[in-house]
Design brief:
Elements lengths: L2 H5 L5 H22 L9 H19 L6 H24 L1 H7 L4 E5 L2 E2 L1 H6 L4 H10 L8 E6 L5 E5 L7
Antiparallel strand pairs: 1-2, 1-3, 3-4
Length: about 160
């Protein structure tokens, strides 16, 4: 067994850090552009973290000649560093949170659909109505507000009044 091929670095550490950093931010920006509904029930950074960490660790786990366990570890540590750093910055500085964290988008206001949000999230009228029915709402007029949440779910605030059965 050749221990140096398992734990040695096949590329300089700095290169692994730069590669991990660039990849993290490119995928992060692309996922922000795609929209909130595409990430499912997870937050954007959760999805990004899982995808990048699994890819970074894969080469080291497979015993690739190109990458060692140490290379994969550096990439995983870099991705984790940026994920935690962005979350900490967003927590500490609310202005940065608007750039880093997704915000709820108003889908329905006073019973009226927001077509811009529907277009941005690639939602059809039938999909919106399906989501309303899942919340026990059968008409737009009974919705005061509805939002596409950062995790892709739809939250609904009904018009005040008697609640349905």
């Amino acid at each position: 067994m050749n221990w140096s091929s398992i734990f040695g670095f096949s590329v300089p550490v700095e290169e692994s850090i730069v590669r991990g950093t660039v990849t993290f931010f490119v995928v992060f920006v692309l996922m922000r552009v795609v929209g909130q509904r595409e990430s499912g029930g997870l937050g954007l950074t959760d999805v990004l973290l899982v995808v990048l960490m699994s890819e970074a660790a894969a080469a080291g786990l497979q015993g690739s000649r190109i990458s060692s366990v140490s290379d994969g570890t550096i990439l995983v540590a870099t991705v984790l560093f940026w994920s935690v750093s962005l979350d900490a910055l967003a927590y500490r500085f609310p202005r940065i949170a608007g750039w880093v964290k997704a915000r709820p988008r108003p889908l329905i206001e006073d019973g009226t659909l927001n077509r811009k949000v529907m277009l941005r999230e690639f939602m059809t009228y039938d999909e919106v109505m399906s989501q309303l029915r899942l919340h026990g709402v059968d008409e737009l007029a009974s919705v005061e507000r509805a939002y596409v949440e950062p995790n892709g779910m739809i939250s609904i605030i009904r018009v005040p009044g008697p609640s349905p059965d």
